[in-house]
Amino acid sequence: YGHGWNKPFHPDDKQRAWDAWQNAVTNNAVYSLECRLRRADGVYLWWLIRGVPVLDENGKIQKWFGTCTNIDDIKRTEVALRVSEARFSGAFRVSPAGMTITRIADGKFIDANDAFCRMFEFEREEVIGHTSTELKLWTAEEQEKLIRMHLAAGGLRGCELRARSKSGKFV
Question: Which residues, other chains included, contact 150 with Cβ-Cβ below 8 Å and sequence gap of 6+?
Fold first, then answer.
């Protein structure tokens, strides 16, 4: 096919595209590649390009069956999500307010920020993977009351919580 087919590829993707194509042709293999292709107006969009060789009875490539799927919206959404996650993570980590992320299904802590760990006298590793009752922050009865309040009000706003630190003092 020569190199003409490679012209619309983004300069950073040309070599990967060429290598994927050469591997597929040499090995009678499927190829799959996420890359940027230039539109007629010069704008690059992300595409998922896949191809499967159609072989004759001797195993020789007769033609290719392929697809090109526009994945530009997905790629842009992934970038926006990474930026948002980085922003949230930064705010979560440095917040002076003690905060945790809890899995609703089982009540286990997924993460805790430094302020929470200082406030409750735990190392992060002691918190993650455990529930508030396992850490004795409050009793099972107190936790059940909090859950009922949360469900009834759609959240815990303007609610004072008393929990215990690792040493047992109220926070």
Answer: 156
11-17: long-range contacts at Cβ-Cβ below 8 A with a sequence spacing of 24 or more?
12/36, 17/49
pLDDT tens-digit profile of 101-156? 999 889 899 999 999 999 999 999 999 999 998 999 988 788 788 888 888 888 87
pTM summary value: 0.66
- In terms of average pLDDT, the best of 76-80, 148-152, 160-164 is 76-80
Amino acid at 127: V
Dump the DSSP string for 114-134: HHHHHHHT--HHHHTT-BTTT
Contact criterion met (CB below 8 Å) for 111 and 92? yes
Q: How far is the C-alpha of 156 from the C-alpha of 149, rounded, in Å?
A: 7
Q: What is the DSSP string of 15-77?
A: HHHHHHHHHHHHHT--EEEEEEEE-TTS-EEEEEEEEEEEE-TTS-EEEEEEEEEE-HHHHHH
- The two most distant CA atoms of the chain are separated, in Å, by 79
Q: Please state the φ and ψ torsions of residue 53, each to the nearest 5 degrees.
A: -75, 140
